[in-house]
Input
Amino acid sequence: MRFVVLFLCRNKYYHFLMKFVLLIVAVLFSITTTSPAQTAKDFAADWDKQHVSSLPPSNVRHKDLQKYLEQLKKIGLKVAEVGRSYANREIYQIEWGTGATRVFMWSQMHGDEPTATTALLDMFAFLQQNRAQPWVREMEKALTIRAVPMLNPDGTELFQRRNLQSIDINRDAAALETPEGRLLKKLRDDWSPAIGFNLHNQNSLTTVGKTPKQATISFLAVLGNAGGKTNDGHERNKRICAVMTLALENFIKGHIGRYDDAYNPRAFGDMISAWETPVILIETGALHNKDEQFLVKLNFVAYLSALKSLVDKSESAANPKIYDALPFNNSGNLFNFIFRNASVVNFAETSEPFTADVAINAERRREGESAPTYIREIGDLSVFSGLEEFDAKDFYLIQKNGLLRMGASGEFLFYKKTRKIDWTAKDLEKTFPPDAIFSNGKWTRGEKLLKKL
Ligand SMILES: [Zn+2]
Output
């Protein structure tokens, strides 16, 4: 009362009070009605500051997942064991939000495809801890998100694609012979989500269209039928893929591809779409000289951009042509390493040198583990690219065991061509110490001797 009286009186405090009240009203108005638009760059900055993950995704074992989930439970997230793997490891589901639109996400159906598991953990922690932000509050009211991080914990333990039965769970959607596949189907069938996100990693040498650029992220709005007939869910998913593409172009322009939609009635992406939960496939590749955590951040940005577009309905205005215009993925045009114009001495077969380019690729391994390399192409490789290329024109190149052939180990000895070497010498490496040695993707001798191209 006293305040009102004061307010109504034209005393000397009147102008000051009016200004104060207007300021308060303005602040309240801005908080309640105009929550600042979250951009992809904001999401990336949020991840930088707030991610809870600490391990590189490839090093997250089942026990590490359990520790992360304990952290999520402590901050109030719903985490439940929903099933067991073939080796009886717990499989979990995280739930957040109370909204009517049901979103279902699952990761690491393939044990050696870990990026999304970590990105999901970071996303849930972020959403839970930022519930006071208006846009998060809106999301909480609009969506219920359920996610299964690490559907294949046995494969994860062994860092292999398949489960412990050696079955590819992603080819078990019809047969349902794996406990993990049966669980995934049950979780979908019991809940009938409106949208599904099928989260994988693709080969790091997958390229975008005809370019030698790595496909760092690839999308597919899965159709879910053999006839190519579209539907509302599929069209919506194309628009959401467009939203994610625009978001990620801030960071990896030119490194985004898409998959050709070849219907596979054994694959979960297709079948879950067919069971009326239209699926978006997100495949994470790699970007040369960027670490696994960078890829986690990209996933985090993509998920939040997609989910936010569902909440504020911006997906309905998105242009599906942006998705349609993404080049299809390609493979076989990019190698980890190419040694160009080497004088190859295949001394187990012949001591006559010949000129060839030699390409090798590294196998997929956990971060910190040395990845073995194998010869994947020999000859004129002028139409192909390497993530790293070396000029070997002044060198003889010898495979460590003397036999340069497809599939042999990518361990090479290099000798300057000015040297006289007896290729028939017993224990060549000892008798004629090489000038440079390349082994398991690294120079172990003579680093920088061969010019980088
Ligand atoms: Zn996969």
